[in-house]
């Protein structure tokens, strides 16, 4: 997921950032400026094989003509200042929301987690396949799944996308399900996550929802809303962390300590700018936990606003479920020893060179499971571990994508909070004021959209 892990994901920012994140569970490492790589550009080159093109010398060209410097190729604008880029984010967002809505309807008693994952990815690929089918410079536009569909049940927090040979028990009424997925169009990524309770049967509303779960879900959803509103040009990440913790305290729940919000760029799902849900304690700092570096949000940026909360201690832990989601570290190279490992890496480099994938995509599951270990050991792949809360803890997870446009921050993914999540608790006065402003803006937008739709219908 934009990712919830016990550490940071490997990624690079601009050359002057002079840092990169370590793989899961590791500590942040720093490098000299001479060794830095701009991951965004590297990812794009890796995926579409971009190379600078030089004109062939004509045999009749004079020596004087050959000395005339060539005009540099104009650099492509890949942020929101480009209207075409903005449109691609919007289209990917529509697909994400559609896939979420479809999955919610499929979460009924007896549904298999593996089938739900396949269903979600089928929706994403089918819808993306309808768009941008004209080749650009002779090459097809890349599009489809940006983050594998994950279905995490009850105390499982995130990143669960099982293999066919390791299917878990089917869903039952009352299960708490966290859905997490992403779509991209030409490398421009939109992500979302949603929490629901499995009803008695399709079309029904869940009954007797635990009030503590209501507190947790409302807290997580409201924290996502105020965090999204706070991520605007000129603001700093520590202010977002502060307001998220205010919300958690008001509802008597804990944020999941390992969850991070990330900036997203073209073909980069976990960018270098990030927001922690919780600052590490002195004890955690002493144990080696890294504090998130301060950053300032800028116009034309894109962020995954990721919030997970729990009635437990908020400290994720590994469980028995296999890690199946990984991402290629495009800046790392190593000569692998095992044939299976070389096969896995070769397939990843061809099909999933920059964005996360699941082992389920490999036809030879046994070969993939054998080969993945050496790739992870040598830093070629970063794992997204399946994280758990303490047994009997209640977990809620919501995520949306925001675009920092000239008109302000716009939330483009994420569904409404299910009505059956209720609480009698209130946030503090400042947060309640923000929530009221957000609700008023949403109502105004919905009214305007309805009027536009009515006008269009009457004129047709």
TrEMBL record:
Biased composition (Basic and acidic residues): 1-30
Region Disordered: start-end pairs: 1-34, 49-76
InterPro entries linked to this entry: Creatinase/aminopeptidase-like, PA2G4/ARX1, Pept_M24, WH-like_DNA-bd_sf, WH_DNA-bd_sf
Gene3D superfamilies: Creatinase/methionine aminopeptidase superfamily, Winged helix-like DNA-binding domain superfamily/Winged helix DNA-binding domain
Residue ranges of domain Peptidase M24 in the record: 88-255
Annotated PANTHER family: PROLIFERATION-ASSOCIATED PROTEIN 2G4, PROTEASE FAMILY M24 METHIONYL AMINOPEPTIDASE, AMINOPEPTIDASE P
Family to which this protein belongs: Belongs to the peptidase M24 family.
Name under which the protein is recorded: Peptidase M24 domain-containing protein
Species of origin: Thalassiosira oceanica
Species lineage: Eukaryota, Sar, Stramenopiles, Ochrophyta, Bacillariophyta
